[in-house]
UniProtKB/TrEMBL annotation:
PROSITE patterns: ABC_TM1F, ABC_TRANSPORTER_1, ABC_TRANSPORTER_2. The chain crosses the membrane at residues 247-268, 313-337, 343-365, 423-445, 460-484. It is found in: Cell membrane. One of its GO terms (molecular function) is ATP binding. Keywords: ATP-binding, Cell membrane, Membrane, Nucleotide-binding, Transmembrane, Transmembrane helix, Transport. Residues 231-486 form the ABC transmembrane type-1 domain. It is a multi-pass membrane protein. It comes from the Bacteria. This is ABC transporter.
Length: 779
């Protein structure tokens, strides 16, 4: 996992922006349940009334409330409503009140609001107070909670209780009570202190639960007052539109932030995928054959494609979900704890259960992910072998065998994938059970809290929402926890390729300086007691090889199959490095030359012609931008490719499919030869490059090639005697040892191994040395 975070660290600025945006998104997401609670509790149940302090107040109600306050509070209260806003005597609350002044007024008016509302309620039910005294507060039944109380204040309908039917007070009842208070204030012996004493005595007899329940009903008087003014509906709708508008604004902001986060996360992950592909390909392109064989081509393809896709996908998830889940979860926990609902233990239970589930799944499924990637490699290997060898498979009627081999590899992968997928799928029912069980616990214990007056319906809805957000945070982490191990394995496999140092590398600057400063290269190739052993092999593939290939001469290498001919040729371009002795070009060890400098001197034609997707022109100019159209056409003419190119409708612009699959073997070989000739190198390396040519074309091509390479060094690996017959020197290899060096005539006289090869390929007439020496057709 550290390797994935290392890749993300390269884009730290974008990651910081994503985290900042996720905090904004989480803030919006966590604010919405609060607004939902406000709409339910305040907007619906309380008619949009947020405070026990009315925004507008009639003078009669103000006088009645003032009588229930101390002289100091009454003076401050009356001062807060200092001017009229309507002709009918409605006063408006001052807008310049400070927060402290407003809080003090709300505290002062709460008990008078409750007393005035209860008195109006008693009046509506025929038990109103006499004008000469104030009934003790303790004799009033506590106002009903929640929506019941709100509806009571909003409409004069009858409500059923356990014993009697209670009628909700109306504006007329409030007016009657206010008139009674006004009349009582005019009675002889009336004093504000008497009312304060009665209120204090009544409050002293109540417990905290009753006081808390009554305090939550202080807004009922405000609702009744607004009804009397005829603005109750307007106040409620204004509140709902205001809070709903804020919710809509937060939602739109959250959507915009989520889109922006997704865009940045996608760009970062795409950049990580691009960089990984670049690094992996850069490493692979510099690998020698030893490193390629160590990883296998199929595995390198899987690592460059499937593994990088896994890492790229997980990087998006990390930025979009893993970074968001903790922010959302911690924010939800903070809101739940801050709410002081007494239900926080449900969250603790959820977290413990979720962590236990995630830990179990991680330990249970993680070991399978590394196995899965290995099986993907195996399936790719089998698929590649079958598809590249489909002709021999059909020719030998091995279709059923190969189908069974592919099916076995596919079933092994399927079994592992099913195991990991089932582990992931099994997580969902448990998550659903935890979520639904949590909701059930909240509704059960929240309902009891609402019944006791310790919680409102909106608070319970918000608590459920926050709890679901917390659970969803852990659900996101659990889903990612299942994906991360596989991505971690993929990252390790990619890193293994990137960390593998190529065994063949350029020398340091000081060592390479002579080669870099040299201008006129002649192209003299010399092997000095060269030995070579493949990595992990028990014996040498080449032993003590020494020879010199001069410019203007052709050096041919011949021998039985597997004797080391191609291996010897591959030591010159450093596809392998010698394990003993050295190979030099113009006296400089090839290991002391920059590979770019060395390869610029070489024209290499591999044993198996390799063409690249594009056109004939792009393939012939593969050696560099310095190759002109004239060079290209000349090379094609020398390689005897001009004839078939001219027959194509598009000529040199004719398309070449991947691997040259739309041209024949002989055409592919001639184009490969032309590609090397177009480069005009100092040293030509032909690795059995004439095997697919017919005898006539072979003779014609070599005659034209001899004229082109008069000043260059030519080294040819061949199986056919006819190809090397007129070489200036022929090297005969046998089981990695040089058993003969000389011309055809010399070797026929002195080398039994060469004689054996010649007798197996040439007729008796062709073996006549005199005829061969006098013959001119090959010159």
């Amino acid at each position: 996992m550290g390797k994935i975070f290392k890749q993300l660290a390269r884009h730290w600025a974008a990651c910081l922006v994503v985290v900042a945006l996720l905090i904004v998104q989480a803030y919006c997401d966590l604010s919405l349940p609060d607004y939902t609670s406000k709409i339910v509790d305040t907007g619906i149940q309380q008619g949009g009334i947020e405070s026990p302090l009315p925004q507008t107040l009639r003078s009669s109600t103000l006088d009645a409330l003032s009588l229930l306050m101390s002289e100091e509070d009454a003076a401050a209260f009356e001062n807060a409503y200092e001017y009229y806003v309507q002709d009918d005597g409605v006063l408006k609350l001052r807008s310049d009140l400070t927060a402290d002044e407003r809080a003090a007024l709300e505290e002062a008016v709460t008990v008078p609001d409750i007393v005035l509302y209860m008195t109006a309620s008693q009046t509506a039910n025929g038990t109103g107070m006499p004008a000469q005294s104030l009934t003790p507060l303790s004799e009033y039944p506590p106002a009903s909670s929640g929506g019941e109380a709100a509806s009571s204040a909003a409409s004069p309908t009858a409500e059923s209780t356990d014993e009697t039917e209670t009628v909700a007070p109306t504006a007329d009842d409030l007016d009657a009570v206010c008139a009674q208070f006004a009349a009582m204030a005019q009675m002889p012996g009336f004093s504000r202190e008497m009312i304060q004493q009665q209120l204090a005595g009544a409050l002293a007899q109540m417990d905290e639960t009753t006081l808390s329940s009554m305090a939550s009903q202080a807004t009922l008087l405000v609702s009744l007052e607004y009804e009397a003014q005829g603005v109750a509906h307007d106040v409620q709708m204004q509140y709902l539109f205001r809070v709903g508008g804020q919710m809509l604004g937060l939602t739109l902001l959250m959507v915009a932030v989520a889109i922006l986060v997704g865009l940045i996360a996608s760009r970062v992950s795409a950049a990580i995928g691009r960089d990984l592909r670049r690094e992996t390909f850069s490493s692979v392109i510099h690998f020698s054959n030893a490193e390629i064989e160590n990883f296998s081509t199929a595995s390198l393809i899987t690592r460059t494609t499937n593994d990088i896709q896994q890492v790229q996908f997980v990087c998006v998830i990390l930025l979009r979900m893993v970074a968001y889940a903790p922010i959302l979860g911690m924010g939800g926990i903070f809101h739940v704890v801050q709410g002081n609902t007494g239900l926080a233990w449900i969250i603790v239970l959820d977290v413990v259960l979720l962590l236990t589930l995630i830990a179990f799944l991680m330990n249970f499924a993680m070991p399978k992910f590394k196995i899965m990637q290995t099986l993907v490699d195996k399936l790719n290997l089998v698929s590649r072998e079958i598809l590249t060898g489909v002709m021999p498979v059909r020719a030998f009627s091995r279709e059923k065998f190969e189908e069974e081999r592919f099916d076995k590899a596919s079933r092994e992968l399927m079994g592992t994938q099913l195991f990991t997928n089932r582990a992931m799928v099994a997580m969902m029912p448990f998550m659903t059970l935890i979520m639904n069980g949590t909701s059930l616990l909240i509704v059960w214990f929240g309902g009891k809290a609402i019944d006791a007056g310790n919680m409102q319906v909106g608070e319970m809805i918000a608590f459920i929402t926050y709890t679901m957000q917390i659970v969803m945070s852990f659900l996101m982490l659990a889903m990612v926890a299942v994906m991360l191990p596989r991505a971690g394995v993929a990252a390790d496999r990619i890193d293994e390729v990137c960390r593998t140092a190529a065994s063949i590398h350029d020398p340091d600057e000081a060592t390479a300086k002579p080669a870099l400063e040299r201008k006129g290269w002649k192209g003299v190739v010399k092997f000095e007691d060269v030995s070579f052993r493949f990595p992990g092999a028990d014996s040498d593939a080449l032993e003590h090889i020494s020879f010199t290939a001069e410019p203007g001469q052709t050096t041919a290498i011949i021998g039985s199959t597997g004797c080391g001919k191609s291996t010897l040729l591959n030591l010159i371009p450093r596809f392998y490095d010698t394990t003993g002795g050295r190979v030099t070009v113009d006296g400089i060890d090839v290991r002391d030359m920059p590979q770019e400098t060395l390869h610029s001197l070489l024209g290499y034609v591999p044993q198996k012609g390799v063409l690249f997707s594009g056109t004939i022109e792009s393939n012939l100019k593969f050696g560099g931008e310095q190759i002109t159209d004239a060079d290209m056409k000349k090379a094609a003419s020398i390689a005897q490719a001009e004839e078939f190119i001219s027959t194509k409708p598009d000529g040199y612009a004719s398309p070449i499919a991947q691997g040259g699959s739309n041209v024949s073997g002989g055409q592919k070989q001639r184009l490969s030869i032309a590609r090397a000739i177009a480069k005009d190198p100092r040293i030509y390396l032909f690795d059995d490059s004439f095997s697919a040519l017919d005898y006539k074309t072979d003779v014609t091509l070599r005659r034209a090639l001899k004229a082109q390479t008069d000043n260059a060094t030519v080294i040819i690996v061949a199986q056919r005697i006819s190809t090397v017959l007129h070489a200036n020197q022929i090297l005969v290899l046998d089981e990695g040892r040089l058993v003969g060096v000389g011309t055809h005539a010399q070797l026929m006289a002195s080398c039994p191994e060469y004689q054996e090869i010649a007798r197996s390929q040439l007729s008796q007439k062709e073996l006549d040395l005199k005829d061969l020496n006098n013959g001119k057709e090959g010159d």
